[in-house]
Amino acid sequence: MRYLIIGNSVAAIGAVRAIRAIDQTGEITMLSREQYPAYGRPLISYLLGGLITEKGMPYIADSFYDQHAVTLRLNTEVVAVDGKKHTVTTAAGETISYDKLLIATGGDPFVPPIDGMDGKTRVYTFTTWDDAARLKAVAADIDRAVVIGGGLIGLKAAEGLNLLDKRVTVLELADRVLSSAFDRPAGKIVARKMRANGIDVITEETAARIEGDGRTITGVTLRSGETIPCDTVVVAIGVRPAASFLKGSGVEVNRGVVVDHQMTTSDPDIYAAGDVAEAEDFFSGQKNPMPIWPDAYIQGDVAGTAMAGGDKRYEGGLAMNSIEFFKVSTISMGVTNPVNPDDYTILTYQDVENYQYRKIVLDTDGCLVGAVLVGDVDRAGIFSGLIKNRVNVTSFEDSLLLPDFGFIHLTSEIRKQLFGERGYQWPQPTFTGHGGGH
User: Can you list the residues of the chain whose pLDDT is less than 70?
Assistant: First the structure.
């Protein structure tokens, strides 16, 4: 069997391990448009800021590829897929055949057209190791930067530049930072921490024009007409599935590559996993891209199992976002901003001065469906376990907001349901976002 994997991501790593658990002799080839072995994308802000070196970027040992008999080809971009012929074409014009194909290409940054952007040399994105390297290479010449976008990517870009003692302004169109993943109180606590560390935050505003002469940037003019002086712009509005090369392949692509419970696409010999995939949501059952690090690994594991002839089912992604910002840890999971809040019981606790916040969302059946944790996130794994197992928490509802809520507050029956006979074993979620990439 010839397995071909496009992308060298956490989803791809999960797939390799799953394939080798079933098939120890099949050929596995992995193609990546990047020049590095698999690395932790959430670490790029620390690389930019100098908190870690390049040696700290990989999250697997150098020996992984040899141990799993994987032929890794870096700097190899796929530009087309022919499902009928079972081949892919690279940018260099090479044709590579496969029996089973996995698309694990992650997401590409979304860069909207902004007046005055064309020709400017100091406009960057921030999703890859190379993005961080490019910013780091010109860091000595950066005085002030504007980051367009107050989501997870934008905040990490701002943090990395701040660690280099650069003046940074973050622009966010919503009324708070982290608006897609966190609620208003959590977003405001994070913004407060940013300002305490010297980062300016402007909400309900966006860039109307990038000012400058020729290739040089002198500032960003806002929709309101105010101009923020700067010499560098980072566009961090978000990412979208990297699937443009599938045009003409016959594979169904909506917002992402549409997959079923085994991560199979509309072509039975092609699979997709990670940020590029459009898979089922745990609660709604609707299919959405799920750009979440742990979930990407799970999808890769399911896809690799199916590719090798095994049987494993993807039960739907649980929206979970985590970011540590200036040593303040945050996690959101599940339903955190209900469309109809009156249909839920919402419990909250906050200590703004100490950057502490906790929000619990329960449905009408008394089951935990969402949580936001800011500051103390050590027991996030218990909350995710309660959500995924649809546990009725009514009997210990009053304990959920306690700073020391944990294993001791659960009944023996619930402990067995979540963690089995051996007790507490639920893994703690760590990183977020960017589950996959080239």
Answer: 419-438
